[in-house]
Specification:
By secondary structure, this protein is of the alpha+beta class. The protein is 40% helix and 29% strand. The longest helix has 13 residues.
Length: 82
């Protein structure tokens, strides 16, 4: 699925976003996986001091973590990378 469609899906129904889709969306905004410890995937992006923590909960991303991603995108005025 393309990043634009993933963003639309994340905005409309964050509870239905798969974990792999959440990672793909975060990476489309320039976040990179910094480390993995257990089920926790820690992502960081240059220029953004906050870290993202995604967890795979039965194949789905946790909705509050998707909302945190959206808040970071809005706060730092991030755009999708091509």
């Amino acid at each position: 699925m393309q990043a634009e469609k993933l963003l639309e899906k994340a905005l409309n129904s964050p509870q239905n976003l798969r974990f792999a889709e959440a990672l793909k969306l975060a990476q489309a905004f320039g976040f990179q996986v910094a480390r993995v410890r257990g089920s926790h995937h820690i992502l960081r992006r240059p220029g953004v001091p906050e870290l993202l923590n995604f967890q795979n909960a039965g194949g789905k991303a946790k909705p509050y973590q998707i909302k945190q991603l959206i808040e970071l995108v809005e706060t730092y005025n991030l755009s999708l990378e091509r």
